[in-house]
Amino acid sequence: MGCQHKFVRRARSAIRSALRSLILVGCIAIGTATAHADDNIVQFSAHVLNFYQWNQDDSELNKLDVRVYQDVRLGDGWHLRLREDLPIVTTDKIGHDNEDGNWSTHIGDAFLQAVVTTPEIAENTTLEFGLRTVFPTGGLSPFGDGSWQLGPQAGVSHRFPDVADGLVIAPTARYLFSVHKAYDDADPYKQWQLYPRAELTFAETWEIGFWVENPIVYDNVTNRWFVPLDVMLTHRFEGPIRLSAGYATAIVDRQPEYKHMVYGRFAIRF
Fold this sequence. Notes:
The protein is mainly β. The protein has one domain: monomeric porin ompg (Porin), CATH 2.40.160.40. It has 1 helix and 14 strands, in the order αββββββββββββββ. Strands 1, 2, 3, 4, 5, 6, 7, 8, 9, 10, 11, 12, 13 and 14 form a 14-stranded antiparallel beta sheet that branches. The longest helix has 34 residues. The chain starts with a helix and ends with a strand.
């Protein structure tokens, strides 16, 4: 019981820290935008995603993810995108915090992310640089990784406007690694996450994307690859609403993540 109380206190403290950081980052973004009201615009969008996956050990996992974006135009072609994710995990997977393998629900690891996009460095081509900060709100496996993590990332985006209604090729790489254990039993975390992202718009309101949500992974601890095929179909309704459905399946699974996954997304911009 004492361990459970200690775990709850740590989780609550991490959530409070995440919320304080979110408020600070949001205030900085909005302040930056309003300081140059003629040039800058802040736009918000909210997403609710649900992922259901079948794992290699025959367990299953459902993740409900609440996600918020703040898009800030900084002027002179610069753009800032802030993102906050809070996942809720339900699973029967065995782990440190679910030793019996019973179905259980817990908050997962929340994170904050900031990405800056440059003005065009060539026609229809931009660069992006960012950082993800992961909080150990999920505790230990199978709900979280038990450590504070940082994930610097970089990418390039090129648009082909004459292909259908627009094709974007935007590969991104992130190196996510643990910087401090929140729990003694937490394993070291060092992972490359690669998104060879491509998104094609067609029939004006439809979009098909590859590796938008689920990356190719190289684990630097085990020196093994996990390569999925990830496909997502999106429909843009008239107005601010978008609906998406996706599917991912393992192609190379030397570092097991999951066998199959289906997911959906509801998004609204305001």
